[in-house]
Amino acid sequence: MTSHHVHRRLPAALLVALAAFATPSFAAEPARTMSASVPAPSSGANTHVHGQGAALDVRFAYDPDQQALRVDYKLRNVGTAALAVFDRGDRHAVASGRQKVGAIVPPAWRDQAGDVTLSHLALPLADPAPTAPVRSLALKLAPGVESSGRFAFAVPGLQAPRRLRWCLGVAAFADTDFDTPERVGALEIWRASYAVSERQQMLCTPWFDVARGAFEA
Question: Which residue ranges of the chain lie beneath pLDDT 50?
Fold first, then answer.
């Protein structure tokens, strides 16, 4: 379940970490998104993440009965240059009909002993390179503009997570790293080069303690 609307550099060592999010072994089971029939949790917790030229406000609402997390967020470009925001999936998924251009996609995820990290990131070129390489899509966000989004994720398996967090990749928008723009209403969606995965910044929320229903300080 997603919605969106728009109002008016990492070192090479992190490439390995980013690649881990892209491999099939990242999750033992496929992600499940909440259906429209699943009611929204009645309470939640808010947090703020500030990055270089970006301010991110996030609300987590966790439903223990469904083991489902709803994430509502607003990202504002507080810098002087445009930003690329990597919550729009990849071109291969669009071409195969698995997602629509401009839609906010389900996150990648990783479970480390009950600590579950969700992520929307620009992905590097896989090694070895596949026959049909996956190129990340990005929303172009102009200075002073805010983008709002929402997604939901049901944690697979019988064991409830201990902690949850979400990371959003953003990068300065450089013309040399993006091409083939598509317009969806007021949105500009661009294809990203693989190089951008090395210089994106990851805006990560603090850990959300499921038992307490609150973010850690």
Answer: 1-42
For the chain, state the CA radius of gyration.
16
Query: How many other C-beta atoms are found inside a 10 Å radius of the C-beta of residue 138?
Result: 27
CA 170 – CA 193 distance, rounded (Å): 13
Tokens of 211: 């038992």
CB of 187 closer than 8 Å to CB of 6: yes
Q: What angle do CA 149, 151, 156 make, to 5 degrees?
A: 160
CB neighbourhood size of 93 (10 A): 17
The residue type at 70:
R
Please give the model's pTM, rounded to 2 decimal places. Answer: 0.79
Instruction: Identify the pLDDT of residue 66.
Output: 92
d(CA 116, CA 60): 14
Instruction: Specify the DSSP class assigned to residue 197.
Output: G
Q: Is the dihedral of CA 41, 42, 43, 48 positive or negative?
A: positive
Degrees (nearest 5) of the Cα angle 104, 107, 108?
A: 145
Burial class (CB in 10 A: 0-12, 13-18, 19+), 48: exposed
pLDDT for residue 157: 84
Question: ∠ at Cα 184 (108, 139), nearest 5°?
Answer: 45
Q: What is the pLDDT of residue 96?
A: 74
Do 36 and 70 form a contact (C-beta atoms < 8 A)? no
CA dist list (Å): 60 to 70, 105, 131, 145: 6, 17, 38, 23
Phi, psi (5° rounding) for residue 69? -115, 130
